[in-house]
């Protein structure tokens, strides 16, 4: 007799539901009726709700690291510099761009030299990095790009770093032979040298952009647009987790506005 094993987290009940349907259709050659599907959904929802009520569980995003902490990581990765452009140098560049633009690490790893566009306006250099494909635009139904705005007071000479990565090449990946996995490895390695108990993650760079932008007062629609989200669901998730008990959270801002 089959036994239904309770998952470790409430959200995993959805995966169990999908697996039950898959087994019924592929291995037992059975098809769920509309009533059967509804009964299964009701059962799964009840189980997930019961588990959520039994113990407090809150989804956890990656850890957040501010600019000063990330500066230590990038410095550790970059120095001492070498004549050859090593994996740690590429990881520093990719992580920095992700943190400064809100882009996904994998997207930056796949940026190509021949696609880059550089413009300048009032002392600010804009490096546009068009995306050939992305997680949310697999069928190319929209024009997407990563834009890095570089001011004269930039923390690191990122343009020089990128130029060093490209060298004399005219085409191909800006950062060849680098991946999200390799960036993650280099971030962990640098954190270990710094004796940090927790290391930044590749996805944490995107998170860092969202939190920093929220703290600086950036408009919600601008953050959503830059991150290329369909709506503000993820933005609210990050904000509520990291800012709800700070002066940047809605719980603080609303009463302050009401007092005016």
Describe this structure as you would to a colleague.
The chain has a three-stranded antiparallel beta sheet. The chain has eleven helices and three strands, in the order αααααβββαααααα. The mean pLDDT is 89. It is mainly alpha-helical and 260 residues long. A hairpin with a 2-residue loop joins strand 1 and strand 2. Helices cover 52% and strands 7% of the residues. Helix 1 packs antiparallel against helix 2 (34-54), helix 3 crosses helix 7 and helix 4 packs across helix 6. The protein is globular, with a radius of gyration of 23 Å. The longest helix has 21 residues, at 34-54.
Order of helices and strands: HHHHHEEEHHHHHH
- Straight-line N-to-C gap: 66 Å
Strand order within the widest sheet?
1-2-3
Largest sheet: 3 strands, antiparallel
Outline the low-pLDDT stretches: none
Strands, total number = 3
Cα Rg: 23 Å
Kindly name the structural category.
mainly alpha
Q: Tell me, what's the shape? A: globular
Q: Strand share of the residues? A: 5-15%
Helicity level: 40-55%
Kindly report the average pLDDT value. 89
Supply the number of helical segments.
11
What topology emerges from the helices and strands here?
Layout: H1 13-27, H2 34-54, H3 67-78, H4 87-101, H5 105-109, E1 117-121, E2 124-130, E3 145-150, H6 158-166, H7 180-193, H8 202-215, H9 220-227, H10 233-243, H11 250-259
Antiparallel strand pairs: 1-2, 2-3
């Amino acid at each position: 007799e089959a036994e239904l094993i309770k998952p470790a987290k409430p959200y995993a009940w959805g995966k169990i539901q999908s697996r039950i349907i898959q087994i019924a259709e592929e291995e037992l050659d059975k098809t769920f009726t509309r009533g059967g599907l509804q009964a299964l959904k009701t059962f799964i929802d009840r189980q997930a709700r019961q588990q959520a009520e039994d113990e407090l569980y809150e989804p956890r995003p990656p850890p957040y690291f501010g600019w000063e902490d990330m500066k230590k990581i990038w410095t550790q990765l970059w120095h001492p510099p070498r004549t050859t452009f090593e994996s740690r140098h590429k990881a520093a560049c990719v992580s920095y761009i992700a943190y400064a633009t809100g882009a996904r690490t994998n997207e930056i790893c796949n940026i190509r030299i021949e696609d880059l566009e550089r413009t300048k306006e009032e002392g600010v250099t804009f490096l546009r990095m068009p995306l050939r494909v992305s997680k949310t635009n697999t069928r190319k139904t929209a024009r997407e790009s990563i834009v890095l705005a570089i001011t004269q007071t930039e923390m690191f000479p990122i343009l020089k770093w990128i130029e060093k990565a490209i060298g004399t090449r005219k085409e191909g990946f800006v950062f060849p032979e680098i991946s999200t996995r390799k960036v993650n490895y280099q971030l962990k390695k640098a954190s270990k040298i710094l004796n940090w108990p927790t290391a930044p993650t590749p996805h944490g760079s995107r998170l860092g952009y969202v939190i920093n932008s929220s703290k600086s007062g950036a408009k919600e629609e601008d953050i959503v647009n830059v991150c290329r989200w369909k709506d503000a669901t993820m933005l609210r998730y990050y904000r509520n987790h990291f800012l709800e008990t700070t002066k940047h959270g809605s719980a603080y801002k609303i009463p302050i506005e009401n007092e005016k």
